[in-house]
Amino acid sequence: MADNPWNFDVPTQMRQFAEQSVEQAKKAMDGFLTAAQKTTAALETQASTAQTGAKDVRDKVMGFAEQNVANSFEFAQKLLRAKDVQEVLALQQEFLKAQMQAMQSQAKDLGTAAAKVATDAVKPKS
Description:
By secondary structure, the protein is mostly helical. The protein has 2 helices and no strands. The protein has one domain (12-122). The chain is 86% helix and 0% strand. The longest helix has 70 residues, at 12-81. The two termini are 62 Å apart. The protein is rod-shaped and about 120 Å long.
């Protein structure tokens, strides 16, 4: 067998060291993959939460827009039935006051909803 240069014995200590190195590398890789899976799952949960929250905010905005358009048409109909300039001015003042109150309420509601979306998106999930 001395004629074959590829035939040699690996010392026991060297073989043990190599086996330990491979085992340590395998454990490190398993740990890395586990951490990567946890991170991916957390990101997916946060993205899903943010997406759900964004849909809720979008639905609120659409509801407010529909309400505001309906109020505007109702105001236009009242204007068409007005008997004189004084009634038109009174209707205008009433409409502007109601719309300002509605806008304040809507802005507050949207602010609360946006804050909830932001809080929920960064909240750790268990």
